[in-house]
């Protein structure tokens, strides 16, 4: 006869209910909720704990002495340094500026809007006009330099640098800096060792100015005044730029930023024309807006020893030695006498000058003869080297400001007349 196994005896300790605990799940939940409310009642008022607990630091295994923690990210801003490109299509002012500059429809308003964003406003080169300004400055300086070299082949290098600085470079900001540009040309320090013309050609910028940090304005102005007192040539003294009065807008820093922004805008527009319309259109734009300015080259000359330089010039060109002759005079014994002196080389009259004394009239006559030699020009019809490209391509290129028709006309004219090499002079005189 089989016996019943009493399982409760073997597993009594596991299956038996523990004292103080409910036997059913629902009772267990009700009991646990009741115990929790009795042991830890809810607190509706806050108070500082009597015992302060120490902060807990988590070790992440990083050597913070070698790898410091990253700085906190700046808060998110709702505005950007420059407007988004699609906003240009909604601007009526940009459309008016596009029409005022007679730009080609090939130049979109987004590019014109980018030319107005200076690096001081948006430092990101992908959105400012720094790249377009660099391209435009290169194009402007190239066309201006070749125009001067062909139309005035005998200009001394100092005068050429001064002319380059006056034509495509600095201009009065109150007049046409927004179209022609403005370049902040640093004065050359008097005590600097790089003063030769060769160093200007090799090491300096397109305007012959020293590439160096700006010195103190007071010391530079003093050096310029000393140079003027000693009769040393200085482009700012030969063709001075209007100075700002103390009541001018802003401070010196804000004026400098404004002038640089105007210059970068003008150069960026030329770069935009070259990018979207081509080389011929950029050349036409530079010729219409930069090379059309009037520039008095005679005011850029300043001679230290004009009579000596004229004698050296006649000796180099195998002319007869220059001789000063009194042509006429009036009021020799009066308070304001006037003497007219002419400089002759044999039977050829080289120059003429007048002054209150014979010496002054003789110096002016020598300077007039030197200027007549250095300002020789083959005429307005002389071709520049860039005309060869138009002859090869037949003009064309399209562009802003009527560049397409003008480029085709120049190309047809080049085909009819052919290429004529530019006149190259032997060089300037260097007086010692």
UniProtKB/TrEMBL annotation:
Gly residues: bias regions? 393-412
A Gene Ontology molecular function term for this protein is: double-stranded RNA binding
Q: RNase III domain: which residues?
A: 94-167
Q: Does the keyword Protein biosynthesis apply?
A: no
Family matches, as InterPro entries:
dsRBD_dom (IPR014720), Ribosomal_mL44_DSRM_fung (IPR044443), Ribosomal_mL44_DSRM_metazoa (IPR044444), RNase_III_dom (IPR000999), RNase_III_sf (IPR036389)
The UniProt annotation puts the region (Disordered) at 50-78, 217-255, 389-432
Domain (DRBM) ranges: 305-375
State where composition is biased (Polar residues).
242-255
Subcellular location, record wording:
Mitochondrion
Q: Name one GO cellular component term.
A: mitochondrion
The alphabetized list of GO BP terms reads:
RNA processing
Keywords, ordered alphabetically: Mitochondrion, Ribonucleoprotein, Ribosomal protein, RNA-binding
User: Where does the UniProt entry say this protein principally localizes?
Assistant: mitochondrion
Output the PROSITE patterns linked to this UniProt entry: DS_RBD, RNASE_3_2
Q: Which SMART domains match?
A: DSRM, RIBOc
Into which family does the record put it? Belongs to the ribonuclease III family. Mitochondrion-specific ribosomal protein mL44 subfamily.
Give the protein's recorded name: Large ribosomal subunit protein mL44
What is the organism field in this record?
Podospora anserina (strain S / ATCC MYA-4624 / DSM 980 / FGSC 10383) (Pleurage anserina)
């Amino acid at each position: 006869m089989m016996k019943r196994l009493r399982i409760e005896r073997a597993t009594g300790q596991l299956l038996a209910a523990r004292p103080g605990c409910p036997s059913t799940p629902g009772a267990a939940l009700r009991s646990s909720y009741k115990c929790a409310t009795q042991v830890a009642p809810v607190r509706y008022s806050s108070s500082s704990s009597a015992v302060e607990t120490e902060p807990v630091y988590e070790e992440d295994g990083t050597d913070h002495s070698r790898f410091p923690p990253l700085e906190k990210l700046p808060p998110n801003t709702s505005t950007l340094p420059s407007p988004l490109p699609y906003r240009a299509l909604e601007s009526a002012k940009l459309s008016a500026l596009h029409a005022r500059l007679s730009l080609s429809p090939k130049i979109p308003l987004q590019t014109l809007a980018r030319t107005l964003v200076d690096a001081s406003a948006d430092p990101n080169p992908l959105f400012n006009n720094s790249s377009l300004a660099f391209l435009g400055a290169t194009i402007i300086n190239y066309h201006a330099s070749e125009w001067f070299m062909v139309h005035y082949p005998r200009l001394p290098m100092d005068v050429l640098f001064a002319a380059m600085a006056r034509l495509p470079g600095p201009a009065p900001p109150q007049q046409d800096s927004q179209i022609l540009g403005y370049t902040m040309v640093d004065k050359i320090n008097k005590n600097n060792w790089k003063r030769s013309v060769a160093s200007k050609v090799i090491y300096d910028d397109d305007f012959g100015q020293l590439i160096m940090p700006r010195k103190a304005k007071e010391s530079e102005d003093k050096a310029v005044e000393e140079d003027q007192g000693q009769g040393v040539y200085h482009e700012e003294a030969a063709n001075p730029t209007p100075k700002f009065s103390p009541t001018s807008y802003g401070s010196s820093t804000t004026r400098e930023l404004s002038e640089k922004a105007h210059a970068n805008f003008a150069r960026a527009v030329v770069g935009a024309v070259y990018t979207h319309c081509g080389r011929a259109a950029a050349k036409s734009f530079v010729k219409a807006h930069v090379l059309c300015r009037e520039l008095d080259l005679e005011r850029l000359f300043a001679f230290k020893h004009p009579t000596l330089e004229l004698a050296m010039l006649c000796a180099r060109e195998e002319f007869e030695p220059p001789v000063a002759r009194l042509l006429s005079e009036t009021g020799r014994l009066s308070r304001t006498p006037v003497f007219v002196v002419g400089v002759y080389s044999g039977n050829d009259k080289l120059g003429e000058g007048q002054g209150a004394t014979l010496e002054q009239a003789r110096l002016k006559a020598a300077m007039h003869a030197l200027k007549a030699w250095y300002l020789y020009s083959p005429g307005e019809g002389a071709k520049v080297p860039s005309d060869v490209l138009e002859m090869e391509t037949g003009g064309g290129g399209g562009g802003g400001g009527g560049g397409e028709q003008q480029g085709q006309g120049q190309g047809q004219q080049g085909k009819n007349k052919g290429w004529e090499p530019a006149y190259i002079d032997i060089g300037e005189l260097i007086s010692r």
